[in-house]
Design brief:
Blueprint (H helix, E strand, L loop, with lengths): L1 E4 L7 H16 L4 E4 L6 H9 L2 E4 L9 E4 L6 H9 L3 E4 L3 H15 L3 E5 L5 H6 L5 E3 L11 E8 L5 H11 L3 E6 L5 H16 L2 E5 L5 H13 L1 E5 L15 E6 L5 H15 L1
Parallel strand pairs: 1-12, 2-3, 2-4, 4-5, 6-7, 6-8, 8-9, 10-11, 10-12
Helix pairs in contact: 7-8
């Protein structure tokens, strides 16, 4: 049995950067430290950070002092302003790719375009760039239910597939006289999707490693299951050895929030079965 890990699997630049900033703050500054929602979408990493003093909260109610760490997915401007009014120190770990998407969204709305965000409704990154007037679309067929607008501007959640973004943009042309779009998709995520697709075409089985709430991990799993037998797991202990019977090539891919040690554990367990 061959075990192959897809190129580019695991932490992306934005996640590495966020963790470095947080680790430094936890080690050098006085707490308490808070994040509104998990810093990244990986339970194992979040648990490790919580043991070092980073508290995950759902809202700012009752929080009167300390440091609010803006997670890698970003936060809505109104939430950040509320934190500042409360006197909280702000440490911003928003991924630069997400920042760019936020800026493009604001730019389009400020110029009078009806903003359309291609992304997962309810995802924290999408919430960070949306306004009350924004329209969120997940799939091309949803365009058919939209009203027409004289000017439409489009941005994307950074973990979207370029294929899905292009599909929605193509459909939107029938809903407006003027369409302006920015494919604000992370280059690393796109490369990761391509390498996963390539490996899935060769593999008898794909194991996609990452948090259940990780959008980009879900996308990698969706890509994989269209091409071969695939399972989405968070850790090695979830592997069922019955999956591995008679498999010649097992491919492993992992989301951008998945640490290398988790990927290595999965690879070791699969290789252990093969030997």
């Amino acid at each position: 049995m061959r075990v192959i890990v897809a190129r580019g699997s695991g932490f992306c630049f934005g996640v590495k950067r966020a963790l470095e900033i947080v680790e430094k703050a936890l080690g050098e500054e006085k707490g308490p430290f808070y994040t509104l929602g998990p810093l990244i979408h990986n339970p194992q990493v979040v648990d490790r950070l919580s043991r070092k003093g980073l508290k995950v909260i759902d809202n700012l109610k009752g929080i009167k002092e300390g440091t609010l760490i803006i997670r890698s997915h970003g936060l809505p401007t109104a939430t950040i302003e509320l934190a500042k009014k409360k006197g909280l120190k702000i440490i911003d770990t928003t991924c630069p790719y997400v920042k760019r998407a936020q800026e493009k969204a604001k730019e389009l709305e400020s110029k009078g375009y009806q903003l359309v965000i291609v992304g997962d409704r309810g995802h924290p990154e999408v919430k960070s760039m949306a306004s009350e007037k924004s329209i969120v679309l997940q799939r091309p067929f949803q365009v058919e239910k939209m009203e027409s607008y004289s000017r439409i501007g489009v941005v994307a959640q950074t973990t979207q597939s370029l294929e899905n973004f292009k599909g929605i943009v193509k459909k939107l042309r029938s809903r407006t006289k003027e369409l302006k779009g920015y494919a604000t998709i992370c280059n690393a995520v796109s490369r990761q999707q391509r390498s996963t697709r390539k490996l899935a075409r060769e593999a008898d089985l794909m194991l996609v490693v990452g948090g259940r709430d990780s959008a980009n991990t879900k996308r990698l799993f969706q890509i994989s299951e269209r091409l071969t037998n695939a399972h989405h797991i968070e850790k090695a202990s979830e592997i069922d050895f019955r999956w591995l019977g008679n498999k010649k090539i097992v491919g492993i891919s992992a989301g951008a929030s998945t640490p290398k040690w988790l990927i290595d554990e999965v690879a070791r367990k699969v290789k252990g079965y093969g030997n």
